[in-house]
Prior knowledge:
By secondary structure, the protein is of the alpha+beta class. It has eleven helices and eleven strands. α10 packs antiparallel against α11.
Amino acid sequence: MLVAWRMLMHEKGRSALAICGIVVALLLIFLQLGFYFAVPRGGMLIYDTIRFDIVLASPDYAYQAQSGTIPRRRLYQALALPDVREALPFYQATGEWMAASSGTARDVFIMAFDPAQRIFDVEDIEAGRSQLRRPDTILVDTATRREFGELTSDRIVEIERRAEMIAGTYRLGTGFVGLGAAITSDQNFVRIFANRSLADVSLGLLRLAPGADARVVAARLREIMPADTAVMTRAELTNHEVRYWTTRTSTGLVFGFGAAIAFVVGMVIVNQILSTQILRQLPQYATLKAIGYTNGDLRQIIVSLAALMAIIAYLPSVILATGIYAVLRRATLLPVDMTSTRLLAVLLIALTMSAISALASTRILQRADPVDLF
Length: 374
């Protein structure tokens, strides 16, 4: 390790440029992993604030914005089980929000429930539930894009050609349901969407009695529910969303392949850096051989050199990635967060990448012949 450090410090300028190349590779890995893991979290962004233990949904359920519908009577069937304490209907659909300033329509995701029921664990929504009792009234997510106009209270907007008044706002995030989101009452929902009925619900939210096992209750529900209704615990819904966004959509696949490509690019960068360094310092390696160093000792020096560069490059890549994550959160509204697991994972990836590249570049050491020195 001492010899590797001296080699690194011998040509500080070249070493700095080499480390900058590794910083770029690690930054690419951070960004690809950040997006890859933020995608399924974005799919669960709204669900994570909804109070339920089991959800009843359509068998055709894809993700929240494409949930389908089930008959409301399935909720009453679920209440037949003693462990099911509450079965609450939840409605959602995408409608057209007409922006008066531009005269263009924007898609807005509308969620609805009975204001007498506490559905969300969001303080602003709780505070605005009483206002939703008024007809033609909505609460709008502050994450809704600027194209929808000012989200000021008492502003009248047009949704599905119906005038609606903004009673207030809440802060949650839109996830992947669209560029804008709003909440209204179930009665107002069917007024906005004339083709929908309270008899067909988007989701059935089941809350269980204290101590009830959600997996056991879900299994019992699957026995009594007909084929038009799927049953998922909260954990199963999370797994479904993760699978959907990471394997069934181009978004997850692109960022998954992107992380793999960034790893390969990083190996190529490190390999080229080390190969150039070895070629430039072949006489020094030949001298080490002449005084008794074996090929194994020289390989260890190269691996140590690669590890040192990776560790030095790791810190600035973390700082840069953390800053870019913050910018991405504001720009895309995705939960792109730096986690301790990701920090450790990228450090291990950096060390693995450097070790593989170092071992691949050591073949050049065969050209370091002590005879050439004399």
